Structure formats: C-alpha cells, structure tokens
Amino acid sequence: MLTGCRNLFLTFASLVNRRTWTCKSFKSKSDLHFCASAASFFPASVPSSPRHRTVNSSSFLHHRLSFTFRPPHRYTGPMELKETLQVLEQLAPLSLAESWDNVGLLVEPSKPRPVKTILLTNDLTDAVMEEAEALNCDLIISYHPPLFRPIKRLNQKDWKQRLAVRAVEAGMAVFSPHTSWDSVKGGVNDWLVAGLGGGQVSVLSQALGNASHCHRLEFTARSTEELNKVMEELKACDGGTSLISAGSRADSSGIHASVSCSDSALTPSVQTLLQHSSPNQSLSILKLEKPPLPGHGQGRLSVLEQPVTVAEAVQKMKSHLGLSHLRLALGWGQTLESSVRTVAACAGSGASVLSGVEADLYITGEMSHHEVLDAAAKGTSVLLSDHSNSERGFLAVFRERLAVRLPDSVTVVVSKADRDPLEVV
Asked: Considering the entire predicted model, what is its pTM?
C-alpha cells in the first residue's frame, strides 16, 4: 500500500507544471493515464474571468486582503515578540514575498523579552549593529535579509555571520520583510512611483493568492447510495479538513459530483475514488490556478495625471528620495524637455521586472550597462538612484504605520547609520 501511495504521489508530482489534468483511463490503481484539459480559477472581482463552484473565491480573496481594509488594532501593555510579528504580518503578509527570497524571523533569541525598542534599517551592517547595541535594541527589522544563503558555520571570518552572532549574544531578534514590502499594496513600489505625482497605477508582475484548495476532483456515481458512501470516505481523507463539496447533479448517465481538496489530501482522495467502479471510470483531476491579488505584486506602472518633462522628473525624484544626484540615460530621440506621461518603477534591481514594459521613463535602483542600452534604444529614459537609495525612504513611511499599531511603551527608530555603500565623489 505504501509503495502504491508513493508511486501515485510521484505520478502527480511529475505533472506539477501542467495547469489541468483529466483522468482518461485506469488499468490499475498505479497505472494512471492523464490528458490535459482547461481549467482556471479567478475571483469574482476580476472581469471576464470564469468562476468555479468548487471554491468560494470571493470569500477567500476578502480573507487574504483583509489587512488592507481592517482598522489598525493598537496593542496595550508589554509587547511580546510574537505579537510584534503578528503586526508585521498584518502590514505586509510574508506570503507576498518572492519564492526565492528569505523573509521572516531570521534570528530568534533563546530567552524571550518584551519588545521595547525596534530599529528599522535597509541593510544590517557593522555600523547599524553598533547603533542597535547602543540603543539596547530588542528587534532589528532589516529590509534586506542579512542571512540569505544557507550557512554551515558561524564564525568571525564572514561579516554576515559575525553580525548574526552579535545579535544572538545581545538577545536581539532580526526580521526581514524584503520583497513582501515590495509587493504589498501601498508598499515600497507604490511609494517609489508616487514620487512623480498621482496617476493611474497598475502592477507589473501580479501577485497570486495562496489558495489552500488547489485541486478539483470530478466524478460520476451510479446511485445516491454510492455517492453518499464515496463522500463519507472522502471526508475521512486527511481528517476531512481539506475537502470542499461543490454539490452534484443527476442525468441519465448517473450523478455527477465535484469536490476540491488541498495538495495533502489529493493522493488519499484519488485512491479512495479509484476503489469505486463508477468514479474510477469517470474521474477528472483538475489543477486550479491561484487567484490574483489586485494591487499586490512586483513593480508599478503609472499613467500620470499631470505629465512632466524629463528634467522635472529628475528634480521630483531627487526630492522624493532625498538625494542630490541621480543617473539619467535619455531614451533615443528624447531630450530633457521631452514629456513623461507613463513611468514604470521597481525598487532595488528592477531590470527583470521592467524589461519589455512600454513607458516613457524607468525608475529603479540599478540596471546593468546593457540593460540601460536596451531601454534607451527603445526610446525609454532610465533614472537610477543606486540600489538601496530606491528603497530606504520607505522606512520613514513604514515607521509611522508600525508605530500606530504598537503600545506607547515601544519605540520605533529609523537607523541613522544605514546608508548606501556607494557615494558620488
């Protein structure tokens, strides 16, 4: 039985990149033949997108986005670390971060202590750690994760490992939000593109919801008795916590039923259906797409309400970022007096997000020489601030959002030692 389960799981895993599957025929429980069929899953709020009865997508979307509309809850009394993390999750859920990113609590003290002082920084450096130690800081929120790649040892030879050791010795927690702050509506990228004024803003790379029920099973039963028996057995799969029934309908060929389930419940659910003759012959397995989360994702495109010239855009962004210098590459055929009506922005190193986007101006921290040439050749001007300069100004915005949710006993400080390593000399 265990071997059969393993074989079936591997069969499904090998097809994970396909959007949908339909069970065509079964010679045995371990001999499955699948063919692709169309299926999609979008919330009802998305125009012209089909809805499936298998999941209440509008309710799911409301639940996932509730942090956007919920009035701020202010904690009172001593603030524990876990409570602080809950507030951070409400402001920007870690599920919005990119899959390659290393976000969340990176260093956790062994001895719990109330959070009284929080230090916000773009990067955790030696200078910032000295500042945190001087403040007797309890939690460091470092936008960039100081620990990113796996490490095999903690010693004093590597500067990132050295900082982690210092945090542990001081009993400081270290948390990194990184791309969850980029993606969230009202986050880093919305703040960055707003530097040129108001406009109609859209997301360049759409974030998707983390739907718990991601498979739909459709099958036919000969009779009500068989259907009831099958449904009782399905409910027992995975403790019955990962199954949603979408009802049934009857016709001359039998009773057609549909249920949705999670990844963990897929294998036992299919095995249950294969044990019954009618479901065995009629089973269809469909992979449901994750619903988009409007307003959340990487990069922003703004159609400005009031177009500006390239020269005006430069001055506005200098003021917005608090910088005296920016780097500008004029697009082919453009001058400082050319009009900018559409602007695409991505904080940090944004070339991969901005590539191919039609806009009068790109705004990001850094791009390679050839990426700048490619954009300029297409007539798009490029404005670069250096990597962390495109992100750091958001810390002051986030400080205000965080402070109103914390008790007066907690002090939130923006680092004075944090700065971009590059300077214009």
From this structure: 0.74
